[in-house]
Amino acid sequence: MSEDGLIAPHGGELINRMVEGDAGKALADKAQSLPKLELSIRSQSDVEMIAVGSFSPLTGFLTQADYKGVVKDMHLSSGVPWSIPITVSASKEFAQGIEGKQIALTDDSGTPVAIMDVAEAYTYDKQEEARNVYKTDEEKHPGVAAVYAQDEILLGGSISVFKRPEHTLFLEHRRDPKETRAAFAEKGWKTIVGFQTRNPVHRAHEYIQKCAMETVDGLLLHPLVGATKDDDIPADVRMACYEALIKDYYPTDHVLLSVYPAAMRYAGPREAIFHALARKNYGCSHFIVGRDHAGVGTYYGTYDAQKIFLDFAPGELGITPMFFDNSFFCRACGSMGTAKTCPHDNTNHVALSGTRVREMLVAGEEPPVEFSRPEVARILIAAYGGAK
Ligand code: ADX
Angle CA(43)–CA(286)–CA(377) in degrees, nearest 5? Predict the structure, then answer.
């Protein structure tokens, strides 16, 4: 339990690596004269997440012992669970002689945003990381492709951030962990379930969220708005869907819509753990894991992202996962359900593949109300440029 009466952040303390005011200006001046490393879009978002404590207890990019522990058995060298390597790479030339020195991390326009104290520069095995973290070494997996595209040396060390990205979207829905925590405390919520999503909201999402809401004080709807693969639906469209859904179908005093500015890794089971730990930092006591959480293609079994929670000792993660089976609308029941609650065979179930839904939206057809709320379907049709 932390001072705000909510679950303690992962590792015990909410990390703050933002340096503001005069101290921030001094760092920005200093950064001008340091060697500069331009960050990828994903690393830029990692820097922001580390800076505001979303990735507590990380204070920077992983050093070698932490990296090895995370890749091998999902623990930092301190023994704290962590499932996804948060790393920054550099070329051999850049990394030469850089250990023990400071560098400036820049955004993609070359503007310095942070100073990194480079404790270590080390080589790593990309295939091993791919196989352990993503369960495949195939380059067509988007997470694996991102690892293969990195430079050959990893730099480990703490960061001090003096400039955040200049966001223009979702400003009213941007809350750092300390702000979601303050919002929960103000609402008097003690138990909060977090919901990660990167897809447009459909009835199965709504069903599992509302099942979870029955047993806790509040729901943190936390759509991921960092980098996603090109064929995922853009975040602004997904957020418009959520706003429409909340307006007509959710009790606003039990739900908080906020964005989660991290990049998607598509690491399935490992990412489910990572998503849960990050939401713990935002103050969530519970976290929803449904079917094929953070999956892509056919790389993971439907419930692998639930089974992986058993790899941790009871209480080790702190946050409590809430598992849901594949959910659907059953015409015979006249309600949503899962194989746990519905006795009818799947000829009664309204199930549509992602491909079929896309075809309908492009053709300007609304999917059945049992699959998608009409208010949401209309936004998606407009976004797909569906026939009028
Ligand atoms: S994810 O990559 O962010 O996991 P998505 O937005 O589709 O993708 O899923 C968000 C959450 O809802 C995940 O926990 C996922 O397992 C769950 N989920 C999605 N669809 C279903 C479904 N039909 N039944 C049960 N859980 C689901």
Answer: 75
